[in-house]
From TrEMBL:
Keywords in alphabetical order: Aminotransferase, Pyridoxal phosphate, Transferase
Any GO molecular function: pyridoxal phosphate binding
Assembly, per entry: Homodimer.
Protein name (Swiss-Prot/TrEMBL): Pyridoxal phosphate-dependent aminotransferase
CDD domains (UniProt xref): AAT_like
Organism per entry: Natrinema halophilum
Family of the protein in this entry: Belongs to the class-I pyridoxal-phosphate-dependent aminotransferase family.
Keyword Transferase: yes
Obligatory cofactor(s): pyridoxal 5'-phosphate
Domain Aminotransferase class I/classII large: 21-352
One annotated GO biological process: amino acid metabolic process
Amino acid sequence: MNYETPLFFQVMEYANAAGRDVIDMVSGNPDWEPPEALREGFTEYAELEPDRLQYPPSGGLLELRQEIAARRGVATDQVVITNGGGGANYLAMARALERDSGNEILLTEPVYPYYPGKTTMLGGTQAFVETASNGQLDPVDVRNAANSNTAAIVVNTPNNPTGAVYPERTMRELVAIAEEYDAILISDEVYDHYDLSEKFTSALSIDSAHRIVTNAFSKSMAITGVRVGYAILPPDLVEAAKSRHMLVNVATTRPGQYAVLNTLRETPPEYSERNRERLRERVVSFTDALEAAGAAYTRANGSFYVMARFDGYPGTLENVARLIDEAGVAGMPGEAFGDSRTAWVRFALVTPRVKEATERLANYFE
Ligand SMILES: Cc1ncc(COP(=O)(O)O)c(C=O)c1O
């Protein structure tokens, strides 16, 4: 698999050029409104003095870092505000590789394809640990794959693409393995507000100098275009990460940080509860239809995604293109996520047209 040129944009371009109505189940862009305070924050910002249109502190607005630190129970100094979760993952992986404690990054399979892409870009090598058919990760397999060259173990919970949510014992074991091999556990938790199982455990709940947690407001506030995320690093890793962030990005969007801070302060938990409820309904309606169509599917315990396997229709790029042209539904080929799910297609449930998509798929495969 060539992870250096992500397939995502290729599929989107194909769907856009299809010359017919296509239901987009490729992108992870929430289709619902952000919290009201987000738009209010931007409106307020437009009236501010010109000095607010200049560089913010490179590591992020102090008040935003303080707000995140208070919510997550860490020191403000440990928080770096990044260009989304993607920026946070980049900093975390770069930091792990710079420590001179190995050159290999352990990834899970199926994998969020940007991790292997970033690993290669950063000069690291990758090894994969396969997850179970329900997406769960067995820490024993991680321990067997870990070695003295392991620089980092990168996990994502709730998971894209499997929808798995790792229980506390898995997270605890992963931190312990990172400590044992002088590696860093990088826990990407961008879907933490979409835990449908109530079993989500943040790696932050396990105190360690060997774990970095990355997150973003892209999904939780339905603002993937705003580009505000963060990394929480152990004290001894944070300064070098800030320097890299400064050299690579200077800083991330100041208006975006302001609007996110306003949203954190003003938004009640009901906003996320409503989003989870909506997603739960979509998962049920989509998987019921897959069941009726005789397809195999993953049960999403979190995140936005369901993987489906249709008999005699492997999840190749060609078949995904056929599905766009002939059924009018766009998904992501399973092969984009590595070798273990090549028979599968991933569908993102962040469209109001989930029901219509299920009908199109049922008609197509009947
Ligand atoms: C697992 C995972 N991590 C990170 C990201 C990127 O997040 P952001 O848009 O905040 O950079 C995504 C986006 O889909 C994702 O699925």
